[in-house]
Amino acid sequence: MAADPRALARRWAVLSCVPVLLLAAIVACDPSPQPRPADAPAGAQRGAGAPPAVTAAPAAAVAPDPAGGDRGLTAERDGYRLDAAATELPADRPAAYSFTITGPDGRPVTDFEVHQTRKLHFYAIRSDLTGFQHLHPEMAADGTWTADLAALTPGTWRLYASFLPSPASRRSTELVLSRTVTVPGTSTAVPLPAPAATTTVDGYTVALTSEPMAGAYRLTATVTRDGQPVTDLQPYLDSYAHLTAFHEGDQALAHLHPADKVAADHGGGPVLTFHAMLAEAGNWRVFLQFQTAGGLHTAELTLNVAA
Residue 251 above 50 pLDDT? Predict the structure, then answer.
C-alpha cells in the first residue's frame, strides 16, 4: 500500500528538528561565557538569573594625614598646591610673603571653611626649629594671601599653610602645604633644647605630660603662676590654647587639637588636654599658645616620643 504523503511530510519535519534541538542543548550546557554586547556593563553575564560579577572596588581616596596634610612637607597634595613666587626673603627685617592656594581646577581657591575661627593658619619655622611664628593672613579677592612675617634670621625656613577647602571638597581635617625659603646671611644653628617636662614664659609655668594612646598621644598641659593654678585663660582660636609641634630633622608639622570646650561662664585652666597624632618617633618641638588679660603667651619645650 502506498504511503500517505501527508504522514511522510510530518515525519520528515520532526526528524529535521532533531539536529537543531541537539545543538541548542549543547549551547545551553556550554559553561564558557559569551561575549557581552558592546553597550553592556563590564562583567555583565548572560541570562537573567546569573549572579552579579565581582569587580574590584574603586581606589579609596587618600585619607588626610592626622598631622595635617601629609605631615605638611609638600607643596602639593590632593590636587591643591601652595604657589609662591618668592624663594628668598630678607634677613633681620619684617617681610611680606604672598602666595595662593591653587585648587584641582588649576585656579586660585577663594572659598575656604572657617576652622578654629580662621580660614587659614600660617606657620614659619627655621630648620633648627627656632623662630616660630603663627599668623593669620588676609586673602585678597583674587585668592592671594599675604603673610606679614616678623624679622627672620639667616638660614632655611619652612612656611606652612593650614586650611580646609570649601564644603564641596568633603574634607574633614585640615590640609597642610609648605614651601621653603632662604634668608641670606651667616646662619648659626641653635641646638635643640633637651626634652623637659616644664617651661616658663611671661611668669607662667607650663607643665606638659604625655600618655600614649592607640596611634596617638594625649597631652596634658597644666598652667600655673607663682605656684597657683591659673583659671582665667581666655578663648584663643575657639579654645583655651593652641598647640603646634614640629619634628626634629624633617620639620614635619603636627597641629594638635584641644579637647577642652570653651565655657561661657568662666575662664579656662589650669588643666588643658590635647589629642596629638605624632606620627614619628624622636624629638618634637612643642609650642603652646594661650591668652590671659588680652595678652598672648607662647610656651615652648621639647617632647620626646619613643619608637
Answer: yes
